[in-house]
Every structure is written in structure tokens, then in C-alpha cells.
Amino acid sequence: MLGPVETRSVSPVFIGRAAELTTLLDALDRAAAQGASPATGACGEPQALLLGGEAGVGKTRLVEEFTAAATRRGAVVALGGCVEIGADGLPFAPFSTALRALREALPEEFAAAAAGQEEELARLLPELGEAGSGRHDEQGMARLFELTVRLLERVAAGHPVVLVLEDLHWADASTRHLLAYLFRTLRAGRLLVLASYRSDDIHRRHPLRPLLAELDRLRTVRRIELARFTREEVGRQIAGILSAEPDPVQVDEIFERSDGNAFFVEELAVAACQGNCTGLTESLRDLLLVRVEALPDSAQRVARIVAEGGSTVEYRLIAAVARLTEDDLIEALRAAVGANLLTVTPNGDGYRFRHSLVREAVADDLLPGERSRLNRHYAEALEADPTLVAADARVMRLASYWYHAHDAAKALPAVLVASVVARRRHAYTEQLGLLERAMELWDAAPEEVRSALRPVDCTEAYPPCGCDPATTPLRYLDLMAEAAVAGRFGGERERALKITKRALRLLDEDPDPLRAAWFWAQRSRLVQAQARGDGWHELATAQDLVRGLPPSEVHAEVLALAANWSMLHRPGPEAVAAAERAVEYARMVGARDIELHARLTLSGLKVDSGEAETGLAEMRQVLEDTLAEGAHQVAARAYVNLPSEMQSVGRDREAAEILREGIAFTRRYGLLDSEAWAWGNLSDALYSLGQWPQAAEAAAHATRVGHGAKPRGAGALKLAHLALARGDLAEAGRQLATSRAHYGTHDPMSQHSVPVARIALGIAAAEGRVDDARTELLKALDAGFPPGTHRYGWPLLLAAATAEADARALPAARPGRAEILDRLAAAVRELTTGAPLWAAYDHWTRAELRRTEGTDTAETWSPVVGAFECLDRPYDLARVRHRLAAALLAEGGDDERDRAVELLRLSAAVASHLGARPLADSVARLAQRARLTLGHGPRQAGVPADPAAELGLTSRERDVLRLVADGRTNRQIAEELFISPKTASVHVSNILGKLGVSGRGEAAAVAHRLELFTARPLTAGTTH
């Protein structure tokens, strides 16, 4: 009955998927919306979507329908697909294809967006020019990612753009990393990014699985999963294919056999319509081969050739491999296209299978010898005529063909050349895979092939040892060295560690101290990056190996790394000596980058040791030199270290200017970790300068920008510091925990551990946990304050002295107080005061120690206020003015009282402006106790002071007392206030001490008698 009915393998009617298509179109509307976004200042709200589903379920058809609708709505669609040969293909292939389409569609906008960064972006799009040949580093890939995202945002700023990346399950590692970065950081532009993948291919160890898990945690990414068709939808699909209403029995049969998979419905419907009994066999894989086996022999042969050639194969390459006459080839291709087996590529120069499932079935049906023979034919054809494929894909395709042809003599050189291409594109994970493949081929390749290879042609990490890389034969160790660096740069550090371990084992058998030192230095970096330790053992081993050897680049690098490590961990004379030798050796061997790094380290050590002006001048010179010479990595480090050292001597305003310049520089060159460090340092400077909203914004940038954990940890710590100063203890605790998690415990540094201890101590003191505060202090005192760490030590000592003074009336603080105060006083005597800022901190801390004894007077605090009046630190000045006011009021004279009023007004104004609630509360309580009017209006008589404030109860203690008065137990209080029972117990003890009572019942009685929980008007004139 259905025999004469016209059939199609694809239904012309779009079946189902209405909800999914609506979701995509709604996302496009949001992305394309006109008007500026308050958050970004750009038009629209960028959208990120993942489309998953099993093979054949209809992802491609949905994407086609959506992109057609998007085009009708005026959007530019840029489509890129991952190639099925995965790591053998060109890294970033889908992004390269999509960017090429975007450039063709919007040439002027694209050129303007890429202006100034063509050299770097050429790594993805060779049409932009020659890719930069600059030094490779760990931030190289991140830099490329940042520039790519910025390019997309700029192109999409004035025009809606749909970026589609298909078949993500085949994506190379670099493509996955770039997509993850794009989804995490996309903030502006009228851009929609849609990536599709096969869900049934994502097995437990599939490399895409971790990426999907990461993206699922992003609130900005929506995931769409396509389900199979229902029986009703299968019936409608069959009707579209057959152009007639199908027999219900046939629909039932096809639905049962296909289980609702759209592609299998197509194949079964056509097979049934054509009366092909093979289509009803048990194996669906056999079904996929039905159409192939029905073709003429020449068309079947061409189908097998195309199946092994890749996802898409160029016509001329097919012709060279098939070796048919042109007429016979055209007829064979026409038969394959007519059977809906192959389709012509959009640009019209090649062919691909209509569905990858069919391609996989045909490829799997090849015999092992047939497969290697076809790959050999592909490789020979491509070698004979390199123009058969696009220039940017040629090297990778050739390496893949020779490798799968199992010809080590041809494959080894081809794979090494491909690894160079991967490195130049910053595709370090793909480079590592190719180098591992080269190591696999090494022993199988003939000696004459290996001896003809040179390090200069295929490696950059070749450890300099006095020989000429252009004339010295390539060694297996050179491959290992390049692979270790590729693993480090690409984030594959475990693989890199294994490679260095094997290399050092080989060097034990055939000693070469210089090479061994180089590998130990690499291990030091990897161990630190993998949180396996602080890396000093490895560096010390490297130093032992180079000791006594003639100067070399390796020698200079080891010394420079050791000096930098010592500056961060154990600054002192040994670090200075190592830095001086590193500078000397680097100059002798002409290693300019190493010299600049070592000079920066040496000048920083000089500042830390007390030679501030000399060290800062040298750091400025290094910054000027790096900018002039284009040494961007060292310049980025200088933009972080120079202002940091300025801050260490209290020159925050000058540091802030340089940091803003540094942020612009690092952002321009995509140096993300350096940018994150600069944001963190800027937050510190702005905090000191009293610009707290801007400081919070800078700290938030630090937590978002960098790839490394430590700069994000520093940003979180700045946010904790701000929250503590504002009295938000819960937020301070959260950010402190985040900071600790980012810093880890494997690599302790004073610049991290001491500020962490300071914030932890401050939170504990604010919550009345005296013992916990002291524990944090003692851990820091036991570790000591090496040279250069005074900038972190002074705030910690001050916080500890202030906490002890505040707690002097608490019974819980009495045990152990004498020992703590002795340790504090000893530390104060030992810490340097070589800059006006630290001399001021010295005076302040000593004054707080006198306050712990109740012996501080106005004479104690006046010099402290005078010291801070000369510094640009308004919050610190407000705090010491409050202390001086308290001392003046204690002395009781009218002149002292008038002066105290003025000081408190100034402190209150600063506290109010900054939102420093603890300081504002302290000022208000002091004014209330002294019956002072701080505002300009007349004081209202008869307004009582706040009894809770007079008793010294903190806001948290008031909450606890309210619950005590209600008869709650410590556990119930803990549950109500989301604190631990231990903390609740500490609060209750503190409250009993402040109220002067012996039990909870008495405390409740006092609270009710004083009407502590009755609303009271604020004291007139007090600034809040």
C-alpha cells in the first residue's frame, strides 16, 4: 500500500521539541534585548545553554530549527563542530570554525573587537596573522581565553550573536577548558552560547563528565536534556517521512524497535517502506549498514574511505585516496548522497556522513589491516599534495594518519611537528598528548630517523646545558622535559609529575647534574601546585646538583626560584645571597627574563630588610625595563610586587595608582592571576584609605578573576577583613573559611597565615571566645615574624592587645592573661618599626597593652593620635581618637570633656561613613555613659542611656541574654542563633560576668528589671 508513496529519510515537519525550542528562543530574546544592563553597561544579558541527548534523539534537528529562527530574528549564527578524531584534530577546532564564520558575517565589528590582539588571537584564527612567538607560561592559555571572551563580548555588543558548538563529547581538552572559561566569565554582550553533546557517550571516566558537573553548579548555565519521542510523536514523524498517514500497526512496531529514538525511527520507516527485511533484524547496528550494503561497490568503497578520514573529508582528498576516475568517483558519491548516507558540507568542498552513528558503524566494520591501509593512503596523499586540506589542519591530520597507519618512522616526526602547532596555539593538553605519543613511538622508530631530529625543531623546554639545540640530536629526555612543561602549563600536573619522576629515574642511571637539577626545579613547581608540599626539598636538591657547576641558564633559574621561595617563606640573608647570585649568573649567560625576575626578588628583599628607598627605586627600574622590553610576565609581577612593598611602608595612596595601572596592563594581556593579586592588593590599599565600598568591589574581583587558588584566597580574606570591621561576624566567618580552603595547609607562608590568624582572632574576640583568640595568637607567635612580615605582624599584635584590653573585666579572661601579655610585650619589642606607619602601630599596641592594665591615660594616647594624624588612614585615626576621648573623659576636666566631644564627633563621622558598626557602637556607648551630645542639635533631657550598652553587652550577647531570659538552654540558644553550644556557653559566661551575677536566673531577673528588651529611643544628638 505504501510502496508508491514518496518517502524521505527526514521528516519535513518539525516534530515535538516545542518546549525546548521555546526555551532556546526565550534565551535568545533575553540575550538580544535592547537597552543597557545596569550590571555591565552592555546591551542584553548573555545566555549559556547545554543541550544533551543520546545519539540520534534529534539534537541536530533542534539546533537547525533554532538557528533558522534566530537568523529570521536578525541574529548572526556562528556554528562550530568538534571533530570526531578528538585529540588528533586541531585544538580549539569548533571555536576556530565559529570565529571564522563570525568574522565573515561581521567583518568590521570583528576587526574592531580584535584590534591590538591579533597576534594572540591568531592562535585560534590564523587568518588574523602570525601567532605570537613569545615565551610560553602557565598563564598562556588563560590569557588566550580571556582575549577570546572579550572578543565575543565586543562583537556581540551591538548585534545579537548565537554561538553554537556541536558534538562536545568529541571536544579536545583545550576546547573544553575554553568553553568552561567562557561560561564562567561571560558577563556582557548580546550573546547566546549553545553547546550540544551526546549524553549516552558520557561514561563515568569520559573527560566531559567533570566539565558538565562544573557547569551544573553555575547558576548562569541552563541544561536541556532531550527525551525520546512518545508513540504519538513517532507516528507524526513517520507520517512526515512517508507523506501519508501510517498504519497504526507499523507505528507500534517501529516505536517498539526504535524506543522513540528519532534517527532509528527514520531508518526503520524507510527500510519498512522499501520492503527491506534486513531492517527488521535484531541488531540496530546492522540496520545502519543496510543503506551502505545496498549501494554499488564503488559507493561502498567511498563510504569506507570517508568513514576513516574524519568527521568531514575534502573532495580532493577523497579523490586522491579512492584512486577512481573522476566520473566513477562522482557516480559513487552521487549514489551515497542519493541514499542519504553522505551529505555535502556547507562550504561545498567536501563530504560527511549524514549521521555520525552511520559513520561509526561503517568505521567499526573495517578490518584492522584495512583501517591502517586507508590511513597510510590518506597520509601519502597529503604528503604528496599538502593543499588537499586547509593549512591550519594539515599538520594535525597528517600526524593522525601516520600514527594510525602504524608507521613509526613517519609518525614520530609528524607527531612532533604537530606538538609544536599545539604549543603555539596554547593547547598544552593536546601538546602533552602528542608528546606522550612521540615517547610511545620513540623505540619503534629507526635510529636514523631519531638521530635526524633536533630539539630546536620540536621542543622549547630543552634544558640548556652548553650544547647547541640546533645541531645536537634530540634525546628522549628532551621529549620528557617538553612534556613536563606542557603538563604544567595545561593543568595536567599529575601526568607531569609522573613524567618528571621517570626522567629522574633515567638520570639516576645516566647522571647529568644540570638536567637533573632542571627536572627537580619542575617538580618543585608541580608539588606546590598540586598541594603536595611547599616544594623546598625539590629546590634544595636542585641547588645541590648545580653547586660548583659553571654558570648556566638552569643554574640561574634554580637560584632565582630558590630566592623567590625564600622571600615568601624564609626571608633573610640566605634569600638575598641567592637572589644576588641569580642576577649575576643570569647576566653572564644572557637569560634576561630570569635576570629581571631575580632583580625584582632582590629589590623586594631589600625593602623588607629596611632599605626601603633603595629597594623601591630598583623595583621601579625593573618595571620600566620590563615594559620597554615587552617582558609581560615579569612586568605583571612587578605591577603586583612594587605596590605591595609600597604598602608595606604605608604608602597606600601611591600604591593604589600603580595597582590600577597594573590591573589595566594585566587585563590587556590576559594575565589573570596577576590581575587577581593586583585587585587584592588594591582592596587592601583602599581599605586603609577609607574607601571601603571600592575595597569590597576590588576584593570581589580578586575572587573571580584568577585561576589560581591563592589569589582567590587573598580576595576572600579581604572581604572577611571588611566584614569584621563592619561587625558582620557571620559573613567574616564565611569568607575566612573560604580563604583558608583556597590557601590550604600544604604551603604555609607568613603573608597568608598571619593575616588569617589576625581575622580569626578578631572574630573570636568579637564573639567572646577568649581562649580561641589566644590560640590564634600563640600559633602565630610560635611561628615568628621573619624579616618583611612586620606588615602582617603589627596588625595581629594590635588586634591581640585590643582583644585583651576589651576582655580585662571578664572572669573567663583572667586565667593565662599574664603569660599572654608577656608574650605580646616581647613580640612588640622585637618587631621592626622602620617606617612611620609601623612606628605608629608600635605606639598604638603599647597603649593597648597599658589599657589591659587600666593604666592608660590621655598622655598615653595623645602621641598615638599624633602619629596617625600624619598618615593617610582615616579608620585607624578614628579608632585611636576614640581611645583618647575615653582617656580624657576618665580624667574628668571640662577642657578634657570638650576635647573628647570633638574627638568622638570625628570618630563617629568616620564610623558612620564607612559603616563600621562596632566602632560606631563603641563611640555611642562612650558618649551615652558620659552624657555627651555628639550631634549639632540640642540635647534632649531625660532620655536614658541604653543599660545594655552601659553594661558592655555586644549585640550578640544581647541576643543570647534575651533567650536566657526566656529560659532557653545553651543547646536551644545555639540552634536559634546558628552557633555551636560551646560558643553559646562562652556568651552566657561573659554575660554573667558583665552583669555581676552568679546564675542564669539572676541574669534573667536583671534583664527584666532593667527592661533591656523594651524599645528605647536613641540618645539625642548621637551620630549613628
Q: What tags apply to this protein structure?
A:
globular, Rossmann fold, 5-stranded parallel beta sheet, disordered N terminus, nucleotide-binding, single chain, P-loop_NTPase, Arc Repressor Mutant, subunit A, 3-stranded antiparallel beta sheet, mainly alpha, 1024 residues
Strand-helix topology:
Elements: H1 18-32, E1 47-53, H2 59-72, E2 76-81, H3 93-105, H4 107-114, H5 118-121, H6 140-155, E3 161-166, H7 173-185, E4 191-198, H8 208-216, E5 221-225, H9 231-242, H10 248-258, H11 262-273, H12 284-293, H13 297-309, E6 313-314, H14 315-322, H15 326-338, E7 342-344, E8 350-353, H16 356-364, H17 368-384, H18 391-404, H19 408-424, H20 428-442, H21 447-451, H22 455-458, H23 476-489, H24 493-509, H25 513-529, H26 536-546, H27 553-569, H28 573-589, H29 592-608, H30 612-629, H31 632-648, H32 652-668, H33 672-688, H34 692-705, H35 709-726, H36 729-743, H37 750-766, H38 770-783, H39 790-806, H40 817-830, H41 836-853, H42 858-869, H43 874-891, H44 894-914, H45 917-929, H46 947-950, H47 955-965, H48 970-977, H49 981-995, H50 1000-1009
Parallel strand pairs: 1-4, 1-5, 2-3, 3-4
Antiparallel strand pairs: 6-8, 7-8
Helix pairs in contact: 1-2, 3-4, 4-6, 6-7, 7-8, 9-10, 9-11, 10-11, 11-12, 12-16, 13-15, 13-16, 14-17, 17-18, 18-19, 19-20, 20-23, 23-24, 23-25, 24-25, 25-26, 25-27, 26-27, 27-28, 27-29, 28-29, 29-30, 29-31, 30-31, 31-32, 31-33, 32-33, 33-34, 33-35, 34-35, 35-36, 35-37, 36-37, 37-38, 37-39, ...
